[in-house]
Amino acid sequence: MAPIVSIRNLTKSYASGFQALKGVDLDIEEGEILALLGPNGAGKTTMISIICGIVTPSGGTVTVGGHDILRDFRQTRSIIGLVPQELTLDSFETVWNTVAFSRGLHGCKPDPALIERILKDLSLYDKKDTMLRHLSGGMRRRVLIAKALSYEPKVLFLDEPTAGVDVSLRKDMWHLVERLRASGVTIILTTHYIEEAEEIADRIGVINHGQILLVEEKKALMAKLGRKQMTVELAEPVTAIPDALSPFGLTLAGEGTRLVYEFDSAGERTGISSLLSALSHCGLRVKDISTEQSSLEDIFVELVGEGK
Amino acid sequence: MNFEAIKSIYAFEMARTRRTLLQSIVSPVITTSLYFIVFGAAIGSRMQEVQGVSYGAFIAPGLIMLTLLNQCIGNGSFGIYFPKFTGTIYEILSSPISMIEIVIGYVGAAATKGLIVGTIILVTASFFVDISIRHPFMMVLFFVLTAVTFSLFGFMIGIWAKDFEQLNLFPMLIVPPLVFLGGSFYSIDMLPPFWQTVSHFNPVLYLVSGFRWSFYEIADVSPLVSLVTVLGFLIVCLSITAWIFKTGYKLKN
Prior knowledge:
The structure holds 2 protein chains of 2 kinds. By secondary structure, chain A is an alpha/beta fold. Chain A has 10 helices and 14 strands. Chain A folds into 2 domains: about 5-225, P-loop containing nucleotide triphosphate hydrolases (Rossmann fold), CATH 3.40.50.300; about 225-295, Alpha-Beta Plaits (2-Layer Sandwich), CATH 3.30.70.1560. Chain A has a 6-stranded mixed beta sheet, with helices on both faces. Chain A has a 4-stranded antiparallel beta sheet with strand order 2-1-4-5, with helices on one face. The radius of gyration of chain A is 25 Å and the shape is elongated. Chain B is mostly helical. Chain B has one domain (about 5-245). In chain B, α3 (about 55-85) packs antiparallel against α5 and α3 (about 55-85) packs parallel to α6. The two termini of chain B are about 25 Å apart. The chains are: A alpha/beta, B mainly alpha. Chain A: InterPro entries: AAA+_ATPase, ABC_transporter-like_ATP-bd, ABC_transporter-like_CS, ABC_transporter_ATP-binding, P-loop_NTPase.
């Protein structure tokens, strides 16, 4: 199946000379949830803004649903929904009117039943006649989502959807994303929260300095880059690592009470059993053993660090 | 054509007018009534007729134009400046609408509002002075063309302005001298020859003169010249707007 969004060699330079995007290639499959991770200024928002029509690209092409975003902007923008990062809303409009306005802008006939359903889904219905300036930050965020859903887009861009949102609302947002995906909507979200990408994404893209560093299935990424670490707690501290243990590349920690062993969890032989028998050969008594897997956050920090 | 989008923008802008009824309708009516009391009743009664028309009636078309220009420039500029200022412009830019549709929505609403206020002023004026309209068709043509042209001009200012100071520059600093020196309150043959020549460089002179001609058949310049001037200015504004959208000037990076 052809990707729903296809980005080829996309570049963007600003008048100041700053290169926000340096030749981005990316395919987004229909129905998936793609999380774009990257530090501030990495080019996430610029990329989304170009696809949605807010920023003009300097070079390269983007197609959405097989249509070119510049030549066939009517077709592409009709199926794209955008929830921007900033809480930009007209202060003096009511919730209902601003959502209906978005639907109209996208060329759809009024559909009060649909808007009612969207507002109810987002727990905004009882606020439908409230002016936007009287809403809390979390509610304003939900209004922005309601606006983007009002014309039933096939591709939804969520730019930092949970920035500054409390934990329970963040969970609600994740459920919403799940429901949308179940209805066939393709979702691209940018986030700072690694936990968020880990929780809901199918694939993860890491972007930094205007370049995509990698795009991988989340599970494959975790397995491929996921280093595991085993910490062995000793009953009596040692001053140095015995020579017999040198092939394992251990490090000594906790004033000689802990030995740290790093291994590849996806590898054929992890070396754990040989390490354990080597330990007893050396006469070291083991008090406790714990293992931990590197999180997406560690992977991310590592990748972005390399990019510097 | 994305008619739903045009309708939405137009309705949104008209809703804003309804929310600010006091400021948008009542205030210009009061201001104009004051002009008529001062210039029409108080001072006008002691003044000679101008080219066979009482002074109060003579200034009525000019006052309507003054209000129309201010309303259209103000509404046209604010309508597009405000979304730029708050950031909600993102929605307009990311919608499946063309430049023409955006302009029809915003400029159409600004012109409509200008025409509503202008008509109210005309009715108000008729309570103070005797008004006759000799060429109703030409009067409506000048009225509508001016409203559209200056709403479009306002729209351009709204896109150009980077802050509220620049936004108010035209309505507050540039339009009033042009209107006051454009023969709204006098016929330019009352001026010394030098200032008559200077006045001919003032575009508002042509507007006021043509508009007044459609009322009383008196004019400083030929009504045809007036009409061509308005049309010419409209074409200039349309060309600049087309350029703005083509290049994304101050709208898109």
